Amino acid sequence: MSANSDACPGPTIRFLATWHQDADELSKDSGKRRLSGRIHILGLGNVGSFVAHSLASRPSPPPVTLLLHNSNLYQSWLQRKKCIEITTNELDDIKTGFDVNVFNDQTWHSVPYWNKDGTAENSNNEISTMAQDVDADEALAQSAQNDERIECLVVAVKAPVTVAALKSVKHRLTPDSTVLFLQNGMGTIDEVNDQVFPDPRNRPHYMCGIMSHGLLHRKEPFQVAHTGVGTTILGSIPPINTLSSVDRDIDWAPSTKYLMRTLTLTPPLVAVAETPTALRLYQLEKLAMNSVINPLTAIMGCKNGELLYNYSFTRIMRLLLIEISSVICALPELQGVPGIESRFSPERLRMMVTQLANKTAANNSSMLQDIKSRKQTEIEYMNGYIVRRGEELGIKCMVNYTIKHLVLARSLQAKNKESAAVPIDLL
Asked: Which residues form the Ketopantoate reductase N-terminal domain (predicted)?
């Protein structure tokens, strides 16, 4: 059952006029060419699909291009009838009308949803019967190569593959572009700067976001269950490490202003804009909670709620949080920010972890799901981040270090069982 009967709304002249008006307002002062208003989304898991669906739910949706990283995913897109489906309270809300770029043979191919005359490639009735018959490779062979610049990019891939994903679109990003990272963990921007944009003059502008919506993957790609309404906290990332000193005078690029305005005016996202310092504090709070719940559930193979009312888990949790609190309170970029010691005290962090574990008691953590799926975990961007920052500050985080390697060992064990691998040093 669908909660939206007309789930195929397409761009109209009125919508185009709205985009161009916003783009004109945001670009007039810069003296640069007008923004197109198009938003690209890289990573179509739970978060990326939810963002795309939310943008399509606006009364005047902006043009959205989905970046699919291989032809197999494009084949799934065709089989899913070129739609994204969000299920809320057992009601399916379907959105279509997305343009698609597919990465194939080291080249991006453009597959627009809309024909030049403004009509859809197929009517709704035709899609259901024809999509199954379309061969992705054949469709890509007939598609055009696409190297057009990307103005606004939402990155929703897993942290470990961020560098590889951004390298594929590096040539399409300019110093006028804005990249929004919607991911778990911390430290990816440092890696991107080192490995993708080492020259500061060529870097795009950065934004980060923290999403607390309840999102669960369903059986098929591009299907997500929205299990709980949360918020999306957004903020720009200054090009320097110190935070509080730049909060009072932030000069946003036109593409950053446009992306921030569009997302905060998209009701399903429940998005709010914060200063760089406030955003960093929210990121660190989420990092602390993820660095307890994710690794412990991944190691033990249990649901989030099973961490509660268990004395041994409680002892490990306290030791982890003592180290995490020590590192966060000593971070040089937070010195001078009032209330850090109380906000990140071990007791307050433990209360937050307990509340989150209780709220998501029936859920499997994303790290446990990654291990079950034989995927690389985000442990290096959670406990690994704490260990690295601690080393910089002369703080030894032995408990976090141990937990990190237990997760890595658990992940390797799962892969070895699947492949029946024998360690080479035992031969």
From this structure: 39-238
Alpha helices in 36-70, H assignment, sequence order: 46-56
Q: Does pLDDT of 60 surpass 80?
A: yes
- Given the structure tokens 């070895």, which residue do they identify? 416
Helical axes 383-393 vs 276-300, angle rounded to 10°: 120
**353 burial via Cβ count (<10 Å: 0-12, 13-18, 19+):** buried
In a 10 Å sphere around its CB, with 0-12 CB exposed, 13-18 middle and 19+ buried, how is residue 315 labelled? exposed
Helix, strand, coil percentages in the chain from 3-state DSSP, rounded to 5: 50, 15, 35
Q: 39 forms bridges with which residues in the sheet?
A: 64, 152
Tell how far CA 404 is from the center of its chain.
22
Q: In this predicted structure, what is the pLDDT of residue 249? A: 57
Could you give the CA distance from residue 213 to residue 330 in angstroms, rounded to a whole number? 30
The position carrying tokens 């953590």 is 365
Query: For residues 206 and 229, what is the distance between their CA atoms, to the nearest angstrom?
Result: 26
Dist CA 285 CA 279 (whole Å):
10
Over residues 238-279, the pLDDT tens digits come to 876 445 454 555 678 999 999 999 999 999 999 999 999 999
Structural domains of the chain, ranges and CATH numbers in brackets: 13-274 (3.40.50.720), 279-416 (1.10.1040.10)
Please, where are the H alpha helices in 229-359?
254-264, 276-300, 311-330, 340-343, 346-359
> Are the CB atoms for 36 and 63 separated by under 8 Å?
yes
